Amino acid sequence: MSNYHIKHLEEYYQVYRKSIREPENFWEEVAEEHFVWRKKWDDVLSWDFTKPEVKWFEGAKLNITENCIDRHLATRGDKTAILFEPNNPDEPAEHITYNQLYKRVNQFANVLKEQGIGKGDRVCIYVPMIPELAISLLACARIGAIHSVVFAGFSSTALATRINDCDCKMVITSDGSYRGSKSIDLKGIVDEALEKCPGVKSVLVAKRINSEITMKEGRDLWLQPLLDAASTACKAEIMDAEDPLFILYTSGSTGKPKGMVHTTAGYMVFTAYTFKNAFQYRENDIYWCTADIGWITGHSYIVYGPLANGATTVMFEGVPHYPDFGRFWNIVEKHKITQFYTAPTAIRALAKQGVEMVEKYDLSSLKVLGSVGEPINEEAWHWYNDVVGKNKSPIIDSWWQTETGGIMITPIPFVTPTKPTYATLPFIGVQPALMDEHGKELKGNQVEGRLCIKFPWPSIARTIWGNHERYRETYFSTYENKYFTGDGALRDEVGYYRITGRVDDVIIVSGHNLGTAPIEDAINEHPAVAESAVVGFPHDVKGNALYGFVILKDFGETRVHDNLRNEINQMITEHIGPIAKLDKIQFTSGLPKTRSGKIMRRILRKIACKDTSNLGDTSTLLNPEVVQDIIDNVL
Ligand code: 6R9
C-alpha cells in the first residue's frame, strides 16, 4: 500500500488529510495490510473523551510477538533483530537474529509460565540494557502477561511503589549492571524494595556482572539454567485488541507515579507505522535509539516499532562518555548506523567536547538523525545538523509522550523541510489544537497556547492503572473533549509546531520527567526540614536543573549547611533516584504563598532563573515580605 511509506510533501498532505477526514478507513487500511491478525476487528474505533474511553480494532485477536518475530522468520530469519553493543568496547557485540530471538523469547516465556505467570498477571522488569531486557518484554507479551518496566536507575523506594501499585507477582532483574567504569548492585536494590512488597512471589535473576549476591531461598532463581532447560517453542497467547500490553509509570504533579496502560493492537499499529515513516526506515538499515528501554522511547522505538518492521535495532548498554566522549560516534562507525535517535541533553553534553571527538569517526552511514525527550535548543540543533549530520541528514525533532505511546509531531525526513527547534507538522492521524487560557481553541497560524489533541490516535494510553478517575482528571478535564498534553506550544506562519515546554509541575531534567511533588515529599522526609518547593532553572547540558527552596524547622540550625544539602540530596536519591538530585538548595525562612496557602512557584521559578525584573503582582501574597529576602539570598 502506497500510504505506508510517505515519499514527498504533497503525499504527506494527501495522506494526512485522508487520515483526518476518514480516520477509521485510514487506520483500517494500515492495519489490514501490514500486520498478521488471528481475527480481524468488528469495529475500527469507538471513543468518548468525556468518560474517557477509546477502543481501537475491537474484536480483533492477535499477539504482538507474532507480528514482531514469527512473521519475519520465513524471510528474515537470519537477519539481525537485536544488535547488542556492550558497555565495554572490548567486549564483542552480540548479533541476535530473528531465528534466535524467536527461540530465546519462547524459552523465556516458558520459564514465566513454569513460574506460574499467566495472562493478565503483572511482571515487573528491573533490568539494565542487556538483551534479556528486550527479551523479557517480548516473553511477557508472548503469554499475555502485562509488563511493567522500571528504569534500572530508580531507587528501591521508587521500585517498591511501582511494584505495589500494580501488584506485580514477579520481578525480573540482574545481579548488577555496568555503567561506564562503575557497576551497580541491582539485586541489592531489589532485595531492599521487596521488603515492602509482600505480593512478589518470585524473582528471576540474570547474570551480568558476576558479583556475589544473596539469593533468597524459595523466592530467587537464576535465570540462565531455567532458560537452558526450557523448550524453544511456545504458543502465542491470543489476545484481544484492547487487552493491556504493558504499564509504564510516568511522573505526575502529585506524589504518586501514574501507571499508564497501553493496549495491544492500536499500540502495535501506531508504533510500527510511525517507526517506518518518521525514520524513513528501509530494509537493511541499522537503526539505533540511545534511550533506555526503561522509558517509553525504548519500548516503542527500540523494541516494538522496529521489530514490527523486521528491522535491526541496536541496544547499547553503556553511556555516552565511556571510555570517552567519542563512544556514540565510534558505535555509529562500527555498526554503520543509518538512523540515530537520541536526546537533546546527550547532544549538548557531546557538543561541549568539541568537534575532534566526532571527526575522528566515519559517520557517512548516517541518513536520519532524531531528537526526543525535551525541546532542543537552537545551538544544539545546529551542532547536531552540521557536525554530526554534515548538513545532509535531516533532524527529526519528534514530540510525543509516555501517554501518547508513539510519535505525534515530527518532520518526516526528506519529506518535511526542517526548521531548527521546531517539531514541525503533526504526524498522520494526529489532530493537535492550541488552546487559550479561557479554554477556547486558537484557530489559524501564528498563535501560541496549550497543546491538546482533539481526536484519538491508535496508541493513546487507555487509563491509569487502578485509577481511571485520575486519568480523566489529568488529561481530559482541563479542556472539554480534548486530550491535554501538559505542554505549551506555538504554531508558526506555515503551521509548524514548536513545543515550548511543560506548563504544569513537571520538570524535564536531562530528558527525564520529574514531578516536583514527589521530590518535595522526599525532601520533607528529612527531620530538619519543615517545608520545601522545587522549581527548574536552565542548565546548559541538562536543559533544566533543579533548584530547591527549603525551610528548616529551626532556621538558626547550627549544623553545617553543606552537610544538610548532601543529606537532602541523599533523601532524594533514596526515594526517587540520583536523577532527581537538586543542583542548588537555598535555605529560607519562608515561601511565597497565596491566601489559600498555595506556594507561588511562578515567583520562585523567576528568582531561580535570576529574572526578577518582572515578578508580576505579589501584593495578593499572604507574605510578600519573604520575596525580597529570597531574592537577596539567591544562589
Ligand atoms: C517520548 C518522551 C514527555 C514530555 C513531553 C514534553 C517533552 C518530548 C519533545 C519534548 C519538546 C520534543 N518532550 N519530546 N519537548 N520537543 N521533541 O519523552 O516521553 O518521558 O513521557 O516525556 O517530554 O514536555 O510532554 P516522556
Automatic annotation (TrEMBL):
Residues 70-461 form the AMP-dependent synthetase/ligase domain. It is an enzyme of class 6 (ligase). The keyword ATP-binding applies. GO terms for molecular function: acetate-CoA ligase activity; AMP binding; ATP binding. PANTHER family: ACETYL-COENZYME A SYNTHETASE, ACETYL-COENZYME A SYNTHETASE 1. Residues 519-598 form the AMP-binding enzyme C-terminal domain. InterPro entries: Ac_CoA_lig (IPR011904), ACAS_N (IPR032387), AMP-bd_C (IPR025110), AMP-bd_C_sf (IPR045851), AMP-binding_CS (IPR020845), AMP-dep_synth/lig_dom (IPR000873), ANL_N_sf (IPR042099). Its EC number is 6.2.1.1. It holds the Pfam family ACAS_N. The keyword ATP-binding applies. The lineage of its organism: Bacteria, Pseudomonadati, Bacteroidota, Flavobacteriia, Flavobacteriales. Keywords: Acetylation, ATP-binding, Ligase, Nucleotide-binding. This is Acetate--CoA ligase. GO terms for biological process: acetyl-CoA biosynthetic process from acetate. Belongs to the ATP-dependent AMP-binding enzyme family. Residues 12-68 form the Acetyl-coenzyme A synthetase N-terminal domain.
